[in-house]
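quick q for whoever's on today - can somebody do inverse folding on this one?? i tried earlier but teh output was garbage lol. tokens:
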């Protein structure tokens, strides 16, 4: 829309405050401004957008309060009310009012300041009187007849009241404390007829004698995590942490049966017995003729197991006893272990520290006999676990027959075998099922690589191997069906695919626009086609683009990507067919070189080509912009040239 030229002026300025009808000691936080608006010398009637500011200087300065809106103006007269003006604005220093009127020749709301600014008269400063109700200090003498109602104690500051103050009635309370402020220097003697020394302070203080809590009362320590009881200094006590009740000691914990107190450590006293001790080193000891550790059957509490020490035999032994079948496992002090029954799980790691064999199992029966049989029904169990510490063999299995298996492992759902550490394999190796490797496996040599055969067709296979591709270290994926590498991965994260990529969701984190490479034409060798430049179709060189040099050019093609640190998110390119010099953003967000000579650029403004080479400008003539629109601005440019973020939408 095009507006006819006009001249705006504000005349006959009057300023005054509005007195409050409900507060006789001051005013409200609002004041009004009245003025006269003319257009081309004639009083204006209609609606207009006005903006008024309270300034701290005649020129320049800082706006202390602002109000703006659309106002109805009759015969040039208008009234504007400032509301919610802080009292600190009128602190005694000079103030001026600046009036801004919306310029109808500029699209959007653009306020044109009227000059000169108008001084604020004394009336608004009466607003400061409104703070008398909350005055911070009182100076001078004030008759007591003027002290009525509630007096803020802070007004009295630190003064002293002299003379005798009489409170009536004498039998009643001398005064009442109406807040949470503590009353200091108050003699508590004779409160309710009791002397002050019979009271225990809420914080601190010492009590003598015993404390009895009669039922149904309880001792409540609140809901703050801390050490509630300190029994002997802070090193011995009981407390609560988040989710934990703890007991603290600086040495041992002991449990006594009977006896009396003794000051000696771990001593139950006369007639007492120590039944259990948790030492400072973490050792838990249980003593007595029936000492032991018992665990009940989870499904049948009438059955339990007991672990106990027994010296009735020729040597001290540790035994595991069952209520159903008696002793099941015995471990002697020389290291021998006897098991009644079968070991059906890796219950222990058995190590030979000498030259003897830790486990020696030999079957001399029929050809199908088993020397060692290990079975795991667990999903994570180990049928056989061998470990070598000093260069030996954790386990060694030898097959002497032509068709025998040195190691034959079977697992329903767990691991048929597991290796932790390096695995050395010599000769041709075939893995018939699944190999689960927890740590890195290294393949070296001229034919190094890892082969995965097709589950449905063993004649087809994939090979993953490392190579140098174009002098760059790469991880390659070879297909025997294709007969060549179909994909490769570089150390910088680049992936090269020979075929198509199919995915449900593709997230691109490296850029924000869709770009395509185009060959460029230059009018001279020094012409700079830098990122952010606007380019158009070169009619004289089909298939090429060139720098824009005209306003409202319908040949506009896009923006050279890469300005402002925003890289292309998706680059379209067909090798050998559609090649180019520069990547041009065809869609998405990108920074463009912009020119604000035709007016400030604001978010949402349509942008088109400019007569300034390679620059975009704001659309001022919508009829001429058809087919020449570059996109919509997403950032501002007040004046001159600079980068503007644009959402590319060619139309």
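ok took a stab at it. sequence:
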């Amino acid at each position: 829309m095009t507006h006819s030229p006009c001249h705006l002026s504000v005349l006959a300025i009057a300023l005054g405050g509005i007195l409050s009808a409900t507060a006789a000691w001051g005013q409200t936080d609002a004041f009004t401004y009245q003025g006269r608006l003319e257009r081309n010398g004639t009083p204006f009637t209609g609606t207009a957008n006005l903006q008024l500011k309270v300034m701290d200087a005649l020129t320049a300065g800082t706006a202390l309060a602002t109000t703006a809106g659309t106002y109805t103006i009759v015969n040039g007269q208008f009234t504007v009310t400032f509301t919610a003006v802080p009292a600190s604005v009128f602190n005694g220093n000079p103030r001026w009012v600046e009036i801004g009127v919306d310029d109808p020749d500029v699209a959007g709301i653009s306020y044109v300041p009227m000059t000169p600014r108008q001084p604020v008269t004394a009336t608004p400063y009466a607003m400061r009187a409104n703070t008398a109700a909350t005055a911070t200090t009182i100076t001078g003498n004030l008759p007591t007849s003027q002290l009525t109602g509630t007096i803020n104690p802070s007004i009295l500051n630190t003064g002293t009241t002299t003379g005798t103050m009489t409170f009536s009635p004498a039998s009643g309370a001398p005064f009442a404390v109406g807040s949470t402020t503590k009353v200091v220097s108050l003699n508590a003697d004779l409160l309710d007829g009791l002397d002050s020394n019979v009271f225990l302070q809420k914080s601190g203080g010492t009590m003598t004698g015993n404390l009895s809590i009669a039922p149904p009362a309880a001792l409540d320590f609140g809901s703050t995590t801390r050490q509630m009881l300190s029994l002997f200094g802070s090193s011995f006590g009981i407390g609560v942490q988040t989710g934990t009740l703890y007991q603290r000691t600086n040495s041992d914990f002991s449990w006594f049966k009977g006896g009396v107190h003794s000051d000696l450590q771990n001593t139950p006293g006369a007639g007492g017995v120590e039944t259990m001790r948790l030492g400072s080193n973490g050792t838990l000891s249980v003593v007595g003729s029936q000492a032991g550790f018992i665990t009940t059957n989870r499904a049948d509490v009438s059955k339990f197991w007991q672990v106990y020490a027994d010296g009735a035999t020729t040597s001290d032994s540790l035994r595991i006893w069952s209520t159903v079948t008696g002793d099941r496992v015995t471990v002697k002090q020389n290291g021998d272990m006897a098991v009644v029954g079968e070991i059906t799980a890796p219950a222990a790691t058995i190590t030979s520290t000498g030259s003897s064999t830790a486990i020696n199992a030999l079957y001399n029966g029929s050809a199908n006999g088993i020397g060692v049989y290990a079975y795991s029904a667990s999903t994570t169990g180990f049928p056989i676990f061998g470990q070598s510490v000093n260069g030996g063999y954790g386990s060694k299995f030898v097959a002497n027959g032509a068709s025998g298996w040195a190691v034959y492992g079977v697992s329903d759902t767990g691991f048929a075998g597991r290796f932790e550490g390096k695995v050395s394999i010599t000769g041709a190796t075939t893995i018939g099922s699944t190999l689960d490797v927890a740590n890195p496996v290294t393949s070296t040599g001229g034919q190094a690589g890892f082969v995965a055969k097709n589950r449905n067709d063993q004649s087809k296979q994939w090979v993953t191997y490392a190579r140098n591709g174009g002098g760059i270290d790469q991880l390659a994926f070879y297909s025997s069906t294709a007969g060549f590498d179909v994909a490769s991965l570089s150390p910088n994260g680049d992936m090269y695919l020979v075929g198509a990529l199919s995915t449900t969701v593709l997230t691109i984190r490296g850029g924000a626009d869709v770009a395509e490479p185009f060959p460029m034409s230059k009018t001279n060798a020094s012409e700079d086609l830098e990122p952010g430049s606007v380019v158009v179709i070169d009619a004289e060189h089909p298939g090429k683009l060139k720098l824009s040099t005209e306003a409202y050019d319908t040949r506009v093609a896009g923006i050279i990507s890469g300005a402002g640190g925003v890289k292309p998110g998706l680059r379209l390119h067909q090798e050998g067919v559609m090649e180019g010099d520069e990547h041009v953003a065809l869609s998405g967000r990108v920074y463009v070189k912009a020119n604000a000579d035709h007016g400030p650029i604001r978010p949402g403004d349509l942008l088109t080509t400019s007569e300034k080479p390679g620059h975009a400008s704001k659309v001022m003539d919508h009829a001429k912009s058809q087919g020449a629109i570059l996109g919509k601005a997403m950032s501002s440019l007040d004046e001159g040239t600079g980068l503007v973020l644009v959402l590319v939408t060619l139309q």
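fwiw Confidence is low (pLDDT under 50) at residues 1-8, 10-26, 163-178, 360-366. also The CA atoms of residues 225 and 242 lie 7 Å apart. so keep that in mind when u check it
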